[in-house]
């Protein structure tokens, strides 16, 4: 289902792993060059600055052409004409996207990014115009969820995966919002349950090699699921949303206080126990949310003093952990994690050996053993 050439995607993963391996000095430059030659990547992927420039240029050209067409339709135009033109350009941008990906082999070039976003934006705009901008919130986010999911499956775009996840959660939120007080009361638990389910699914798919081209999307999905799971049970979020949107008093406040403090602690514990960086980093990040929530309702120290004390404690803790992990302990180290891609199952070592040593090594013509002075008991002072 993915639009990009899968052989080039696999070779791209291999090249990234070989670059990392060579950077760690586990293989030589010659071995690296042999693997890169044996695993060519046909994609056009410029540097980030050119990618940004191509994105802006493509967006400007696309919007300008659409604007000129709108100007031509201004006299005697109707809402139906503008709607049809908007949907037509959405379809046109998608066709151009497929062409640039499948024929021109663009991959994260800026052109494909811009065409993808314009196609989705024009599709959504078409629905807005067709309904006179009176589209229900739940339907809006359902469209965002569907479009983001389709683009994610087709182009494995990480940002589109995040958009699809946000659309899904917002769709569930506004659906429960319109279903009445019972659904509103159960909303935090519904969001927590769905977030937990999505995290378990993404963690399961991350272990399956057939989804290797979606690993980036699955990783962002797992991180967002962890964050949403916590936010749905955070005391501040539940209370403020309940009072502002639902006009309902806080219920089971003690339970949400437990969630507020216990969930980041559980993330950190499980991250250390399972050596899961995503859990550990999200847990450390959400620890700040715990401090903010507690301080918002129970201010103990002045803000300046609290920030100073907290910063000093964090610096001291960071120094201690860095010093403690100078030598690796129990699988943890202070060194940077240089593994960017999970492609162990691609058997990089075997490929390096196979592509480096094409033929059985043979001694040069006229080579004769002998000449050492060790007499078989070890090397002497000369050979």
Automatic annotation (TrEMBL):
Transmembrane segments: 52-76, 82-103, 115-133, 139-156, 163-180, 186-202, 214-232, 252-272, 279-299, 305-325
Region called Disordered, residue ranges: 359-383
Keywords, in A-Z order: Membrane, Transmembrane, Transmembrane helix
Biased composition (Gly residues): 368-383
Protein name per its UniProtKB record: DUF2157 domain-containing protein
Organism, as annotated: Chitinophaga cymbidii
